[in-house]
Amino acid sequence: MTVPKSHPRYESLMKRDKLIEAYKSGMVAEAGMIAHGRGEAFDYLLGECTIPEAEEAEMVAASLLLNANNPVISVNGNVAALCPEALVELARIIPAKLEVNLFYRTDERMKKLVKHLEDHGAENVLGLEPDAHIPGLEHARGLCTNEGIFSADVVLVPLEDGDRALALGKMGKTTIIVDLNPLSRSARAASVTIVDEVTRAIPNITEFASQMKGQPVPDFDNSKNLRKVIDRISHALFELRCAFGQG
Ligand code: ATP
To answer: Would the CB of 159 count as within 6 Å of ligand 1?
Structure first.
């Protein structure tokens, strides 16, 4: 698709294009396209930019990953399709392990995603040979590796579904979620919720990580941060409502 860079929805259209291509090549599940649409709707309400609450959560996420014993970045189809280079760069800077972990797991999709990450510079991507299981999740959805997600103390799970976010939390892990929907179950279950678009969030975490080595983890209240995000959305809607006038 040829879209001029001056098009007001250029960035959004390019992301859709990447996801369509990844869907056609078998990396993204059908449901992944629907999840992206839900995310776009919330991004619209947030002004399609990184809000201060997200920036604070990204800073805390960088610090948690840097201070972890076994930090792992869990990668699904949408995230791999949208920002593979950024994931690889974040994994390098921390350093953290990358593990492909899918809700709609098939061997074929797993292999394609691992190869896609390797094509973008990743090494030792985990996930193809699961040897552990996240308790409380039905078989295929709980598969993971002992070296990676199972033994991780801090897990970054961009765009995770609520059940798995909750299950990881119940295992005692610190969970960092990227989700544009501050109302989702994952957003409410996470230790740190980053309400930002994933292609903005991952490079921001990397940038903070490159500045914060050796520093302690700052205090952070996730519920308070989420309340501020919801207030921000409510305020934006009220302003829009006012723009339509009285009556
Ligand atoms: P939950 O189970 O946590 O209540 P859900 O059913 O909405 O949430 P999914 O269907 O797995 O979970 O959707 C994933 C979430 O990812 C959606 O809430 C959507 O807002 C968010 N999302 C989709 N695309 C992006 C993106 N590019 N950046 C950030 N968030 C996104």
So the answer is: yes
Say if residues 186 and 160 touch (Cβ distance below 8 Å): yes
Q: Domains of the chain by range and CATH?
A: 52-215+222-231 (3.40.50.12640)
What tokens were used for 237? 């809607």
**DSSP characters over 73-88:** EEE-HHHHHH-HHHHH
126 beta partners:
99
On the CB side of 32, CA atoms within 13 Å amount to 28
Instruction: Looking at the CA of residue 165, tell me the nearest atom of ligand 1.
Output: 3
List the structure tokens of 160: 């995770």
Which residue has tokens 């510079």?
121
Strand partners, 194: 178
At residue 1 the predicted structure's pLDDT band, cuts being 50, 70 and 90, is low
Task: Report which ligand 1 atom has the smallest distance to the Cα of 34.
Answer: 10
- Each residue of 54-101: pLDDT tens digit? 999 999 999 999 999 999 999 999 999 999 999 999 999 999 999 999
Give yes or no for residue 162 having a pLDDT over 90: no
**Rounded to the nearest whole angstrom, what is the distance from the C-alpha of residue 214 to the centroid of ligand 1?**
32
Atom of ligand 1 nearest to the CA of 197: 28
For the entire predicted model, the pTM comes to 0.95
Peptide linkage before 130 cis (omega within 30 of 0): no
Residue 82, judged by CB atoms within 10 A of its CB (0-12, 13-18, 19+), counts as buried
